[in-house]
Design a protein that fits this description.
This protein has 606 residues and is an alpha/beta fold. It contains 17 helices and 23 strands. The strands form four sheets. It has an eight-stranded parallel barrel, surrounded by seven helices. The protein has an eight-stranded mixed barrel with strand order 11-12-13-14-15-16-17-18. It has a five-stranded mixed beta sheet with strand order 19-20-21-22-23. Helix 8 packs parallel to helix 9 and helix 9 crosses helix 14. The protein is globular and about 75 Å long. The N terminus is likely disordered.
């Protein structure tokens, strides 16, 4: 008999804040304060803002202005520039001046790492400054300190206050907002020593800075907490909101999946992570971080926001939280194994027809309403289910079908195909899972959605947002996407991509690649293309492709191999978290990466 977990345990530990949102089943935006950033506001009753980041050298005024104009023309509402040092921070004044002369109105954001002085200078010229708690005070990861006494730890907090207060004073005087932006890949040694590389550590890293802002009554603050792993990203933001609720904070949230990649992978991973949180009403501004031209991020972000926001005013869903899903820790729902579905099996892929694909193939193909000769029953034909021999049975249901009479007919050998046509389909399907868990039922569930889209990007965004939350939460034993206007091979790739993006089934090489920015030390897009060309046939490998060392080694922490910019035109290669070779000329680095993979026995001929 499967074991069922209950959230009551976590509520006892954390209090009612374990309920990070008040209603799992009916969409509404989380209420936050409104933060003014130039001519716009983030949070409050304002729409969800979309933004991007330039990848130009911030010292190059002309190129930076040109790119910012492209971002704004595409619909970007904020534009971010990296400011590695005081020189770059100072030049933001010239960039801003030129942009305003050309009629551009989007507020500018300075991205700061390691350099509080650069933040203080940038705050004079831009509308928002982003600082990273992991390196605002702590220069680099040393990992030399593994323990801090309480007194030593408190002294480190006082160092934060000493560094932060001058910036708050400048921002207050110049009406400049701050984003406190935590990255999974750049936690400080102090946080790692006490909390480890965990969601709790990421949250505490953010709260240390937020508490100082609150004590100083500086509330013009937006917060973000990001990771390249969608599961960690979603769980950590939820935990942050729960902890803010506990401490009576309501700052607006900036959402993003770091190092999401390009093409389908980048769109799907972003839709999975950001979409799962937007669906719960969390998030006030987003950036879709693609390893592509910055202006390409904006239409993707806009489509995602518009799709989730279309649920406003949906028909009420009356459902009960079973308390069986811990939103902060992954735990796969315990189910019976039926014909290779559920139990300890990886989630399966259903397709409505056979299709040709060079690498992938569906696990189950539905033909004429049957699966391997077994008919799919509906709520209207359930009375015939009793005549089917034992072994495996299939029933397609919606949440509204789940009456006590229907439940009595769902024996353990029944696989449920869960469909929906509700305007807020993700919440209605979630209600079905909770209804079954409340009854301690262990039937495997295939999540099914039907779309009429013909544009593959639209489908990637919608399906990623609709399916991701379930697999991130350990719910769902399979995926079935129906889209008659899209090529079957594209549907197959998308289905496996969603499962991989949610970290529940590996089917291809995964590339953890950052969006380029002014810190990038090589041509990111062409490099990704070259690496993919040579390695895409390698299954079950993760390869990190990082433009610089600021977040690179940390964000690709679970990658098998890493390719990281270390100096202009130079690359460091990693095996796991260990740097194997340093300062390899860029024109040799891809071949050296292949040699490294071969030397470790992970290469197969394509």
């Amino acid at each position: 008999m499967p074991i069922f977990y209950n959230l009551n345990f976590f509520i006892e530990v954390m209090g009612e804040s374990a309920k990070y949102i008040s209603d799992l089943f009916n969409y509404s935006r989380r209420r936050t304060i409104a933060v003014k950033v130039g001519n716009i506001e983030i949070g409050g009753d304002n729409p969800i803002r979309v933004q991007s980041m330039a990848n130009t050298d911030t010292n190059d005024t002309e190129a930076s202005v040109e790119q910012a104009l492209k971002i704004e023309k595409a619909g970007g509402e904020l534009v971010r520039f990296t400011a590695q040092g005081v020189k770059e921070a100072t030049n933001l004044e010239a960039i801003r001046s030129e942009l305003r002369k050309k009629g551009a109105k989007a507020p500018l954001v300075a991205d700061i790492h390691f350099n509080p002085k650069a933040a203080e200078v940038a705050a004079l010229y831009v509308e928002k400054v982003r600082i990273n708690p992991g390196n605002f005070v702590d220069r680099v990861h040393t990992l030399n300190r593994f323990e801090y006494t309480d007194e030593e730890y408190q002294l480190e907090i006082e160092k934060i206050r000493t560094k932060l207060l001058p910036l708050l004073a400048i921002c207050r005087e110049n009406h400049t907002a701050i984003r406190i932006g935590v990255n999974h890949g750049s936690l400080s040694d102090r946080i790692l020593s006490r909390y480890g590389d965990t969601p709790n550590g990421m949250v505490e890293s953010c709260l240390e800075f937020l508490r100082i802002c609150k004590e100083e009554q500086f509330l013009n603050v937006v917060i973000s907490i990001k990771a390249s792993n969608t599961v960690i990203m979603v769980q950590t933001v939820r935990l942050l909101v729960a902890r803010m609720n506990e401490e009576k904070m309501n700052f607006p949230l900036h959402l993003g999946v770091t190092e999401a990649g390009d093409g389908e992978d980048g769109r799907v991973k972003s839709a999975l992570g950001i979409g799962a949180l937007l669906a719960d009403g969390l998030g006030d501004t987003i950036r879709v971080s693609l390893s592509e031209a910055p202006e390409c991020e904006i239409p993707v972000a806009r489509k995602l926001v518009d799709y989730v926001s279309s649920r406003i005013g949906h028909e009420l869903i009356v459902a009960k939280d079973s308390g069986c899903v811990n939103p902060f820790v992954y735990q796969k729902r315990a189910t019976c194994a039926v014909n290779g579905i559920g139990g300890n099996n990886v989630p399966v892929v259903f397709m409505s027809q056979e299709c040709e694909h060079s690498v992938l193939s569906p696990d189950f193909v539905v033909s004429n309403g049957e699966i391997k000769g077994r008919k799919i029953y509906s709520v209207t034909t359930l009375d015939k289910l009793k005549d089917v021999e034992d072994g495996h049975k299939y029933v397609e249901l919606t949440f509204s079908d789940l009456t006590d009479e229907v439940v009595q007919q769902l024996s353990d050998d029944v696989v449920v195909i869960l469909s929906t046509s509700h305007k807020n389909g993700i919440a209605e399907q979630r209600a079905f899972f909770h209804a079954l868990m409340e009854r301690k039922m262990s039937n495997p569930i295939i999540i099914k959605r039907t779309y009429q889209d013909s544009d593959i990007e639209d489908l990637q965004i919608k399906a990623g947002a609709d399916f991701g939350q379930f697999f991130i939460d350990g719910l769902g034993d399979g995926i079935w996407i129906e889209a008659p206007n899209v090529q079957p091979s594209q549907l197959l790739s998308l289905s496996f991509g969603i499962l991989q993006g949610a970290r529940v089934r590996m089917s291809k090489t995964e590339y953890i690649s950052c969006p380029s920015c002014g810190r990038t030390l090589f041509d990111l897009q062409s490099t990704i293309a070259r690496i993919k060309e040579k390695t895409s046939h390698l299954k079950n490998l993760k390869i990190g492709i990082m433009g610089c060392i600021v977040n690179g080694p940390g964000e690709m922490a679970d990658a098998d191999y890493g390719y990281v910019g270390s100096a202009k035109g130079m690359v460091n290669l990693y095996k796991g978290q260990t740097c194997i070779e340093k300062l390899i000329p860029e024109d040799q680095a891809v071949d050296k990466l292949i040699e490294l993979i071969k030397a470790n026995g992970d290469w197969i001929d394509g």
